[in-house]
Amino acid sequence: MADAIVNLALEQLLQITTQKIGEEVRLVGNVENEVEKLRSNLEAIQAVLLDAEERQMKGDRAVRRWLDKLKDISYDMEDVLDEWNTEIMRLQFEGELEHAPAPKQKVPSFFPCSCFGIKQAVLRRDIAQKIKELNGKLEIINKEKDTFKLEKLKRIEGPERVSSTSFVDMAEICGRESEMNSLVSKLLDERNEKQRDLPVISLVGMGGIGKTTLAQLVYNNDKIMSYFDTKIWVCVSDPFNEVRVAKAIIEGLECLTTDFVELESLLKCICQSIMGKKFLLVLDDVWSEDYNKWKSFYHCLKNGSYGSKVLITTRNERVASIMGSVAPIIMEQLAQEECWLLFSQLAFFGRSLEECEKLEKIGREIVAKCKGLPLAAKTIGNLLRFKGTRDE
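The structure assignment produced for this chain is given below.
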């Protein structure tokens, strides 16, 4: 549990400082050093969490108290990072960041840049102070771990990342209507039909937010199915293996030739197969920031008919930009009630109305901790399906 919380905090840090680097970091002044310390402390603690969790399960109360303190700080950290990210998005929406010129030199946090104004300067100092306070608490936790002589245990490697497919159960989906309508509209947009460039559309968001599910929903949408001549779904994942991806595209196009091994031959096959066809290619779970791995595919795919589109899902907005995506759709957390509906249909499956009513209060408290992540709601909902009492 602690490992999952620390992982989430690290991912939020990555999302803010790497995925959206620029004006957003300047929003909180000269705080990069504190953020780097925060990341370093989290990674040092993360390295020994497996040993700590095993020790607490064996009854080590001191380690259990240490883990409880870590969880409390991690939850506080999530709140601060959420506040930071929310303000970034608000300022972007209002246009206050988009047109703000980058300062030519670092500006001390007590001396606000003229482009932000008093309110933004106050917010900047407030968030910077909270991050500094959190760092102080986390440094204490980090030092305390040394007294327990925790070891860096190697995790038993699990199975390979499960490949996604285009199949989805519509009945299990809650919310996402507005995002789906927006995405369908972009895919059906014909304003680029007279241009030579192949439009790349992207879904961007943290892990578990529902990018793949939304892509699946749209892939199976009636309007999409009738608009495109052919559709191909490829789970790219990490690393980006060009030959494997090329072969997967060829399989999706149902080409007869499957014995090519060189990328050049594979791309020629794709190029010939899509000629005159209006296609939709979905590249799910893209991580690579190497433009050279994508460049050959892009030039090859431009041989398709006007109206063809490429849809990618990625956790990293930089990846979307490198692949030529303009105005990505940023996936946000589910609304609390939508998250509850998703959770309850799994956790309360097969229960009586009376039993559901008894468990609803604690169920909603659990859903609040899912932070609007549909994957978290589904995973925990499935686990709790077999728990019969409130204590369980």
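Interim note for the steering committee: The first strand starts at residue 200 and ends at 204. Confidence is low (pLDDT under 50) at residues 18-27, 96-116.
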